[in-house]
Amino acid sequence: MTKLRTLADMLGASWIPSLSMVQARLMRPFYRMTFLAAAARSGLLAELRGGRRLDRAGVIRALRAHARPELIGPWLDIGVEVGVLARDNSGAYRLRGLDGRLLAKDPSGVAVAGLLEVALYHRQAIMSAPRFAVEGGGLNHADQDPAVIARSTRLVQPLIESAVRDTVRDHEPRTWLEVGAGDGHYAQYAAAADPVLEVTCLEMQEELVDTMAQRFASTGQRSRLRARFGDIRDVELDEQYDVVTLHNLLYYFPEDQQCDVLERCRKLLRPNGTLLLTTSVPGKVTSVSALDLWFRCSDFGSPLPDEHGLEEALNTSGFRDVRMYRPLSAFSLVAVTATNPA
């Protein structure tokens, strides 16, 4: 009788309807996304791709989880509960959901990086903004994984490649400087579009400079592609270039430094040289709004630029013939070309 009364009290509690709705519509998808992100970040997706199965001991070995191996079993159980994993009678785990199997096809690729950006950084900004508004403070460079960011920025890769391709075709450059080159993908793309183009990649994250150097060496492109460590604001470069590019980079600088950065880029251009700048801009896409919020919360960056403000900053920095367009109108990414006047 006591248990029945307890059950009745529980079911009649005023919070039960709202809690049931939250559990069904919000909590389970959140747990599922979080586990998928953790599985990708830890390497589990890569270990289970292609239908591979591993028991708990096999997962511990594969992930090198030797410091606290007792955590792996309960962690895997959550993966089963949210439908990402299945466990057979022998205790072996495999990927169950379609989302996990698709992500596992390229566990270090763009889609996984996009998931990690949402799970790690967008969630962080949405949770932190009210606290920062009350207490002050902000996010910093250490709150981002450079490798994840370098890959996730390639979510708009075809749009940026289109702008790069057009610039190579229209201006026939012989020297090219990419500022904030990330993992070097767009530099390689530009070099592939013109067999005599020489590209210098400037990057302020040392691990990405090392990644680029290894990548260029492994593809036999080291003679035409060079990776260099440095910050555009103070690096010393002893030449001028036909083209200088910045891809999704301007909002990494405070607003009061952006004109200085653009002027610095202009001075690195030869007379009549071309700046190519691509950037996300505010729009009606939630992921872009969350990206904008993250940089508003940061202690080093700035909000995503709007198109009018961007054009004004370029003119203030001494550029002329500013041309702004969207490679595809449905996406919140603009490409800008501007000329360093002779």
From TrEMBL:
The keyword Transcription does not apply. Residues 177-275 form the Methyltransferase type domain. It comes from the Bacteria. GO terms for biological process: methylation. InterPro entries: CFA/CMAS, Methyltransf_12, SAM-dependent_MTases_sf. Keywords: Methyltransferase, Transferase. GO terms for molecular function: methyltransferase activity. It holds the Pfam family Methyltransf_12. The keyword Membrane does not apply. Coiled coil: none annotated. This is SAM-dependent methyltransferase.
